[in-house]
Model the fold of this input.
Amino acid sequence: MASSEVVAELSRANSSTDKISEFNHLLQRIVQNSPPAQLAANLEAWLDTILGDTLGIMTSRPLLETFAQALKGVPRTDVKIQVGRYFLNLLRSQSASFEVQDASTREMLADAYEDQGEHIAAAKELQEITLESSQRTIPDEYKFKVWIRIIRNYLEEDEFADAELYLNRAKSLVHKSQDQALNLMFQLSQARILDARRKFLEASQSYHGLSFSPLVVEDERMRALSSAIVCAVLAPAGPQRSRTLARLYKDERAHELPEFGILEKIFLDRLLSPNEVENFAANLAEHQLAKTADGSTVLAKAVIEHNLLGASRVYEDIRFEELGGLLGLPGHKAEHYASRMIEQGRLSGSIDQIRGLISFGGDAGTGDRVGANAASGKTLRKWDSNVQGLAEEVEKVTSFLQSEYPDFVAANLAH
Done:
């Protein structure tokens, strides 16, 4: 409950001819002189009077703008949150008339939640700010700023799906933004979301671009370069990845990073040992070690595909079981990886299933004969499908003969 002194002063101010001046002075005294235990109650009493029935909207609007600024200066975060929530609850039924004050209070609450490390609460508070209004014109720069702040808060808690939703909104305004710091935050957020979504090639390119930004301090630029290398390593093997690896390998700064060893081996198509892979995996983020639909990790797939490309540099022909031995897989799984990469144009070669042999040809993984390889893979699958279809038709004919002419089948068809 508010102090009796504040209640009396509120009554006097309400009767004054210069209400705006009186209420502003009283607000200043409440913030400066209220005992800590009484501050929240006194501020809430002030709000009750301003939003009561005695003051018109033309008087209450400037007073509430002053209040929103004064609340930001209150040192206690818990008081900010308590009074801020109380203020928004009072505005709930008439928020359309006080959109500016509502937005200012929500931004202040987001600041308070961020100070307490409650980033989800901060993001949700910012989401409630009205950005499409018939009451006022809201600049695109302000919308972009709010959306970027929401994205950053969700990313602090690794809530990538929610962050991506607002990133997609921000994409429509990033080209209009003149604020380089906000644009940089957008680029970094985009890179992190691409990384989390396992779009590693795009993430690598985004991180690499950030590593050249003069707005980023040197340590952060090197961290962005490190992330670019990690994402390139995790990307699916193929021509695009080869080009990305080449750009990173030629970046002289990469030699200073611990990831350079694995970058060099992958760029030069050398086989990776289990120890090297294990050391690299020790520094990966949780989402980069998550299992895929077939039970393997993204890193395991990337290493298998890389070693397969490396094997194609060394061997002209190799049997499934021998290739499996190099990749640490059963022969049939090695064949599966090879056939998929050939079909997708990421590996040059052909498969002889009868002989259990893979023949490599051209420059594997660099894009040579990509069209031919893709066509070859599709032809093989079409051939398999046709053979399967023919076998099914033969089975249907046999079943028909057995049902219609059982004696003939018994006498003439071998079992």
Q: What stands out?
A: Residues 363-374 have pLDDT under 50 and may be disordered. Residues 370-404 form the longest helix (35 residues). The two ends are 95 Å apart (CA to CA). Residues 53 and 265 are 75 Å apart (CA to CA).
